[in-house]
What does this fold into?
Amino acid sequence: MSIKSNQHTNQQPSSNKDWHYHPALPLQDASVFSQIKSPKLVLGWFIRNWLSLSEFIILVLLAVVLWAFCYPSLDQATTFQLTWIAQNLFCNLILMLGVAGGLHWYFYIRQGQGKKLKFDHREQTRNNRSFLFSDQVKDNMFWSLTSGVFHLTFFQSLTMWLMANQYIPVIQLQELSIGTALWFLLGFVLLPIWSAFHFYWVHRFLHQPFMYRRFHSLHHKNINVGPWSGLAMHPVEHLLYISSLAIHWLIASHPLHVIFHVIWLGPGAAMTHTGYENLLVKNKRRLALGTFYHQLHHRYFECNYGNQEMPWDRWFGTFHDGSETATKETRERKKRMYS
It folds into this structure.
């Protein structure tokens, strides 16, 4: 996810013939790690993301509501029973329908923002037999709501069972010390960073020709992304991608951290694949959604394997800054990989 801006939007389409809209090019280094030597810039990043109404805070608040009213408690998870596991499954299903379905309805059915800040001028694909049901949205819904929700539920339920039986360290809110309280709060800040780190390396692995042809190519049918494409993956890719939740088996966490992590990996993927840069309210950017950084990956494939918040693409020479030179370099890299 990217940083929110409240500035008025440029409503004019991009002058670049390849895109309907794009931010200023070439893309600059937006990673907080590039600013690590400047306490002022790092503090600014923290304030924008964690001390204002950003997507980070919205997802934390959503996790609190779901933990309090929707998901089963740890007391129910001491033994594997269909009732509480099914409750997790149902909650995750409704969550994906609500977030991905809501975004799709607003942007693609209601056309609530028209094409303002939409990267690709095209609509979602229909009558294309490379997709299940010859329809991109139906294909994406199928993979998201079956394998995607199943794997989210599997890792979540297994983690809850491990926590309930104290096989892994658990943060107890009723026994919070100052140090534990700080770790509890810091967990929400670190989980997106861990997820980005995990995603980059899993994603690089999935782009190895053997893995790409058999598994990851399913996700890459979505050159023009939409909300439902975020979690539309082959089951093997779901297993690898959602294994990010296994971090809770090693490091002390609270069920709220697990729920926040589930939302980040599931509905969060729908948000970042919306195909629009921001949600506009009264012509102002109010919620950061997709990034041109990842849109370039879906267009050119062998670049930008990570996201803006992590420096790995820049460090390992796979960064595409949106320029024609970077496009040529990416195409050459792809030829070498598959030759």
The chain is about 55% helix and 5% strand. Residues 32-338 form one domain. Confidence is low (pLDDT under 50) at residues 1-12. The first strand starts at residue 278 and ends at 281.
